[in-house]
Design goal:
- The protein is globular, with a radius of gyration of 21 Å.
- The chain has helices at 11-22, 26-37, 41-65, 72-79, 82-114, 119-136, 141-167, 184-194, 204-208, 219-242, 247-252, 256-263, 267-301, 319-335, 340-369, 382-403, 406-432, 434-437, 448-455.
- Helix 1 runs parallel beside helix 10, helix 5 runs antiparallel to helix 15 and helix 6 packs antiparallel against helix 14 (319-335).
- The protein contains 19 helices and no strands.
- The chain crosses the membrane at residues 12-34, 40-59, 80-99, 119-139, 151-168, 180-200, 220-245, 265-297, 318-337, 343-364, 376-400, 406-426.
- Keywords: Cell membrane, Membrane, Transmembrane, Transmembrane helix.
- InterPro entries: AA/rel_permease1, APC_superfamily.
Length: 457
Amino acid sequence: MAHVLRKELTLSQIIAMAAGGMIAAWMVEIRYWFELTGPSSLLCLLACGIILMPLCLIYTEMTAMLPFAGGENIWTSNAYNWDIGWIVGWFMFLLYLSAMPNVTIGISTMISYLYPLNFIELKILACFIISLWFIMVNLEIKHLAKIQNMMFWSTLVISVLASLIFIFNEQWHWKNLSPWFPKGLAGLSAGLGLLMFKFIGFDLIPQLVEESNFSKKKIILGFVGSMLCTFLVYGLAIVGVAGIVSNDWIAKADIVDPRVADMIGIHWLALVIVIMGAITCVTTLSGFWLAASRTIFGAAVQRQVPKKLAEINRWGQPWVANLVVYICSLYFCIMAPEAWINYIFTITVGAAGIIYLFVSLSFLKLRKTHPEWKRPYVCPFGVFMGIESMLFCVYCLYQCVVAMDAATWIALGIYFFIGALLYMYAKYQQRHDPVNWEPFIPSPTNTTEEICENSRA
């Protein structure tokens, strides 16, 4: 079998996958946003986008400098050591896995608009979707990318048009958005910390860049483009529905946008939104699944996990890594409580906060320890960008800890117990089988052949 990922992804496809990772089942999630902070969730999203932009520029520099699957794990390993990289890699895997129930239960909830389902039935359907997608991601990526590219850009247009139909409807009034801050400063503060979740997805780009076929100087377009698309869709959605119905109505709705469309007598629009939303979630599922499997692939190249996990099938897909993603996705889906939105938000933002914090630290350190490495893109005002990003990460982590419930702590406890066992296994193998488990950290000085050699089982 081959051991090199194929370079088949265009810039447009990278943007579609990254933005698709951010734009998910907002018509289901938006009720949680309004529970947090009402219409001011729009301001929280805008603030998060602005605050996260320095981190995007940091990611751009690091991705262009070290364009390997595994991304943040490899960056941290280069800046610090193999052990720190392993920990970051395990958080990365958690980040992408935790998105799976968000997407699949979101799709199931949208389908329940057409045919009512209880929560157990929602999870069964979600597990079926995960199983179906396990088959899809093991086929040639260029075909999956083309399908996702078409679906994402078409649903982006439809979602914007749907929001504009709401805004220009006679029942829409600006005064309905009041009060903007129903939960006061506390709600705004929580929203600012937890709505960072909706911009998690730009970090898919480092996982996919090894399979891209465009100049690394254009990577900045992938990061900025995906962020702008995300804010456009979410921002218009918030204004569109909040101008028609009350904050309390939104917070209690099962699925918001289609219900609003029915309320104003446009049932065909409700059906279009449900179909479009399901398709959007499929693009999200693709992006996070690919990122999760590439995270494992990169860890296998570094010999943090068995090299078998870097094995690639005849379609160029890491099939063993995909199998691990499949099993773990089923676990997080089955573990999801009925308050699944809060469960997913806190796990995902917490994992992202840890990863982004270590990326910022690694960025600052590599600037000092390896100034000679070629950087196709250089982040301006590096020290300021790094410090600003670290402070925001710490703030988000605090908000996550405050918001976590018992179900979340249990799921995380089991996950990190398994991680501790895998880490100890890797350290044991390093001592007893150093030939096959000697740490390898890809850097700009390595050739493709060297990386390929270290991924062979």
